[in-house]
Amino acid sequence: MSLVLICDDPDAPGGTWVHWVVWDIDPKTTQIPKGSLPTGAIVGINSWDKAEWGGPAPPSGTHHYAFKLYALKESVSLKPGANAKALEAAIKGNILAEAKLVGLFSAAR
User: Which of 4, 12, 44, 46 has the most crowded CB, counting CB atoms within 10 A?
Assistant: First the structure.
């Protein structure tokens, strides 16, 4: 069993913008401290083509940031650096449960 976390912004001007892609998170993980990655977890490529968390930075207005968490029956067989689309395809048929938390963030004025 493992967890997957994808954070994206569906309000981005060019379409959904992926901020973070992480898989093989230990289900016993209860928090992820700022600037860290859970032990053993694998990070994928975000929309900046970087393997890291890319915080909220909307160009204007208020954007919705969706944190999607999936509990999987088995860990994912993907190499580091896969993107959200590849991860979503890899977890189909392997999802036990899912949750979604949406936060709002506004551009500085």
Answer: 4
